[in-house]
Amino acid sequence: MSDAREATLYRMVLPDHICPFGVKAKQLLQSADFTVDDRILRSREEVDAFKAEHGVDTTPQVFIDGNRIGGSDDLEQYLARQ
After folding, report:
1. pTM passes above 0.90
2. How does 18-39 read in b/e, with b if 16+ C-beta sit within 10 Å?
3. Using an 8 Å Cβ cutoff, are 71 and 58 in contact?
4. pLDDT block averages, 10 residues each, the chain of length 82
5. So where are the chain's domains?
6. CATH says 5-81 is which class?
7. Helix (H, G, I), strand (E, B) or coil at 1
8. Residue 58 burial (10 A CB sphere; 0-12, 13-18, 19+)
9. Which residues are CB-contacts of 30 (< 8 A; sequence separation ≥ 6)?
């Protein structure tokens, strides 16, 4: 059995804006030794479609083991409990 931990991160990186919370979430995951599947949302349309599909109001969103953890604040709380 592998000890490798993997997370999927959906975050917004637009031509005129890189979401600082997405950057923070990626750094938190990497610091906790997660392999990050970094899914970049590159347009407002992609961001809006993602939010509608997952029923969330914000990005980034982190998924671990198929479970939605939430945004960067939720991730911090999740990691603190590990």
Report:
1. yes
2. ebebbebbbebbeeeebebebe
3. yes
4. 81 96 97 97 97 96 96 97 92
5. 5-81
6. alpha beta
7. coil
8. middle
9. 36
